Amino acid sequence: MQLFNFISGLSALACLNLVNAVPVQEEFSHLSKRCDFDSATAPDCWGDYSLSTNWYDEAPNTGVVREYWLELTNSTAAPDGVDRMVLSVNGSVPGPTIFADWGDTVVVHVHNGLENNGTSIHWHGIRQNYTNEADGVASITQCPAAPGETITYRWRATQYGTTWYHSHFALQAQNGVVGGVVINGPATAPYDEDKGIVFLTDWFHQTSDSLYAQASSSGPPTPPNGLINGTNTYEDGGSRLTTTFEAGKRYRLRLVNGAMDNHFKFSIDNHTLTVIASDLVPIVPYQTETVALGIGQRYDVIVEANQTPGNYWMRSIPQLTCGSNGNTLDIKGIINYDTVELADPTTSMWQYTDDCNDESLSNLVPYVAIDAEVASVEEVMDVGLSTVEGFFKWTINSNTFLSDWAEPTLQKVFNPDATYRADENIVTLNETNEWVYLVIESQLGLPHPIHLHGHDFLILGQQAMATYENSSSLNLVNPPRRDVAMLPASGYLAIGFKSDNPGVWLAHCHIGWHTSQGLALQLIERASEIASTVNQDDLDNTCQAWTTYATANAIVQDDSGV
Ligand code: C2O
User: Fold this and answer.
1) Has residue 35 got a pLDDT over 70?
2) Å from CA of 483 to ligand 1 middle
3) Hey, do 193-337 and 377-552 end up sharing a CATH topology, with the first three levels equal?
């Protein structure tokens, strides 16, 4: 069935097909040029552009528009054999992968066919340079799209590699409104076949909404299971993802951690991984046995089918240092060499240390080197936890983030009379193309995956059990660059970026519960230039439809707004 082609090569089980699958748009099935290597092997592939192009300054413009239609619906599904209500995208969980080539324009029409639910779709890690209005964050860059409405997102693929899209409304993403994004471009190491997205999640047998009160009063519930590309076994039910290898070939896997609460280590028994990208940033390749993914992070890895033909486990192991899971050592798929009959593997896992650290910073060396410069702005802020009327609330910079679905910041910035509350947690950046350092510190023993919208950032410092002193300790020389990094337990994370993107950008912890419990802030960057990048009518229309719907149905916002 056509639907499964999105996951290019992974087995048909890879993507959960629901009963009421809608027909697939023609546009999903074509991929134009495909081009894996830099100029040495594919000289004409990217024209005047290559792996060495600094894509923050310039990128190809193919003139090609990739147009997609996503339909969100309530469905019932049993990805691991246990029935539950899910929110699906075009009838599947995860939804279809969006493909584009580097330099294309991507247009996605999202129809909200959900019951009693607003929505917005965020293109995680996409820089949205001068396209803030396409960032898809309810209460920040748009009002939620009301049920029955369609919203269109339009952005340029100036970066390339692997990312994902997810709802940025309530805890909808963790109910299934997620999918992969693959932008074809050059790679820092050769491979023979692209196996596409390998989507790792934890999985609950109840909806995230029904668990939210518990998560907020007695602590995060233990996910009973995890899924790989929307499937796994549980007790006697469910099934395994199966991926076929041909001996001697090299395969590219595009790993995504789309979990609510679990930090994963990914590995394939007996096979080493060559890591070629961290988030949307190609890196100098390095080899490893396991690769660690914080929530929201991606790694592109190449694995060579160089072992005795057989069946091998592919493993996604939740790290218990910063979370829990009811099926820790059994979130697995099968790598099956095509000359051998498919069977449950008997292989053993690589040794690993249970922790929630990022990959070692010394391994994450961006292929296009960028140094940080001395900052014009440095903000140092603390993360804290408090209890308000029996409910956990996180704070950052002393505030628990709260924005209003019906009043997105992007609309407020046009109103000269708008006032901002402290809990909107705004950092204003008026500087143009200057370096900004954000230092996030925590006294608490729990790490957090910190994500920034609108920028890749440089990791200037990252230390557990330490206090930030001053910028003289930071590394400014081609530091790792990405869009999610771990704030270590009782330590600090220092990130730097250039103020080169007018807009309103969210920064938050990507643990679903924590985003909802207020661990977020927003940057208003170069406010005076924002208006010229936005179609205010679109913004107003979405808000009007939302307000009409919310008033008629007495909708109450019970989370941070993002
Ligand atoms: Cu992946 Cu604010 O999100």
Assistant:
1) no
2) 9
3) yes
Domain borders along the chain are 45-184, 193-337, 377-552
Write the CB contacts of 552 (distance below 8 Å, at least 6 apart in sequence): none
Q: What is the CATH number of domain 377-552?
A: 2.60.40.420
Topology (CATH level 3) of domain 45-184 = Immunoglobulin-like (2.60.40)
Q: Which residues line ligand 1 (CB under 6 A)?
A: 122, 124, 166, 168, 296, 451, 453, 506, 508, 510
Is the bond preceding 94 in cis, omega lying within 30 degrees of 0? yes
Fold of domain 193-337: Immunoglobulin-like (2.60.40)
Closest-CA residue, ligand 1 atom 1, reads 124
β-strand 492-498 against 457-463: which pairing, if any?
antiparallel
Q: CB–CB of 82/207 below 8 Å?
A: no
- Residue-wise pLDDT tens digits, 516-561: 999 999 999 999 999 999 999 999 999 999 999 999 999 999 999 9
CA separation for the pair 503, 50 (Å, rounded): 28
**Ligand 1 geometric centre to CA of 297 (Å):** 10
pTM equals 0.93
Which atom of ligand 1 is least distant from the CA of 515? 2
